[in-house]
Amino acid sequence: MIDHTGVMVSDFAKSRAFYEQALAPLGYAKLMEFTAAETGHTDTAGFGEPPKPDFWISRGEPNRPIVHVAFRARSRADVDAFHKAALAAA
Q1: Helix, strand, coil proportions of the chain in percent (round to 5)?
Q2: Residue 34 has pLDDT above 90, yes or no
Q3: CA distances (Å), 44 to each of 3, 59, 75, 76, in order?
Q4: CA-CA distance, 53 to 50, in Å (whole number)?
């Protein structure tokens, strides 16, 4: 069973704002965030359904090869809301 996963992002602030908005219709929220000073190497933020984040982003060079991450949705309406929110956040 997978506990959590993460991806590297080149623009941390923009990516954090994107995921906060895009994942909200799926019930995800930013649950944790740590600065480079706190982690000792990079900024990172964790998203998920309370109480535990399971999707993390970290400032750095984007993953190569590209990583595929899929989020579970409860209904087609949730998928449509996620898509709409992601387009608005882009």
Answers
A1: 35, 25, 40
A2: yes
A3: 17, 6, 30, 30
A4: 7
